């Protein structure tokens, strides 16, 4: 015998069907999937995120303050002007005699006072290929050699001919013999060639490092002025020449500190 369903149950199904079919419920009216999530749990998660963020900021702040303390008091025994250090950047070469390193930085402060000293050629233009000396002859625009051309390049403004001579003596990677392959002019090799050159007592006839340790900077600059003519005793002084003793003292303090 067929039994009819209760009116209440039937009416509920009919109402549900009509509501959906008739479009009475818009997407905005549909229940949110988060509607059943307990409010307390959501609030707790938000609080945990804020706590983690505040902890991170606190740790970062403590670390920054500690760095300031170390910088100010840890280096207090050596008055290093970091602005000057950035103006005359450190060598790419690592290690070595701090007095010779300071002298090299002093030479380059006068000879190649540019943001990218290893890549600069006479006149202030830059080259990107340092697999060999650029060997570009640029016309000299001022000074006693005005009108002539120069191939000076790199941090120490090597002439191409001087570079070949000194690289043959001091370059750590000699040119290949079976076929022509020029000496690399990469920054570390520019440094190494000059460093070994300045240490060569037989070439200069004196111990340059010892002279520097004895405070005889002016004698050293005079000795080198035949090679680097802007050091104060040559024929091509520039706006940096008179400041070289101050530059040397500044970078020497830094080099001595870093060598400890």
Automatic annotation (TrEMBL):
Residues 1-27 are annotated as: Disordered. It is an enzyme of class 3 (hydrolase). The keyword Ribosomal protein does not apply. One of its GO terms (molecular function) is lysozyme activity. Coiled coil: none annotated. The keyword Membrane applies. Keywords: Glycosidase, Hydrolase, Membrane, Transmembrane, Transmembrane helix. Residues 1-16 have a biased composition (Basic residues). Its EC number is 3.2.1.17. The chain crosses the membrane at residues 47-67. This is Lysozyme, glycoside hydrolase family 24. It comes from Limnospira indica PCC 8005.
